[in-house]
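REQUEST ID: PR-0412
SUBMITTED BY: lab tech R.K.
PRIORITY: routine
TASK: structure prediction, single protein chain
INPUT:
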Amino acid sequence: MIHFLVHDAKDDVGVAVVDIESGTDCSGKILSNNAPLKATAAEPIPLGHKIALRDFAVGDSVTKYDVVIGKVVKPIKAGQLVHVHNLKTRRWA
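STATUS: complete
OUTPUT:
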């Protein structure tokens, strides 16, 4: 079962294609090259939301579609939800 997709090999977040429960060992796939990925959900990740594939510190950039989409405003651990509570979108950064 695929839990999340990554658009480009340079991305550091995946997009949940199902609701993911906390603690789930997830399987993912990079769409640009079909490579498999693994991640463990540290908290629930709702369908359509982003899961962190690495740890982020405040001020780090988040990449999706091989494009920086925003800056981290609160530390994020791999497997956590990436959303408005910890990411300021590039448009408003």
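NOTES: The two ends are 36 Å apart (CA to CA).
REVIEWED BY: pending
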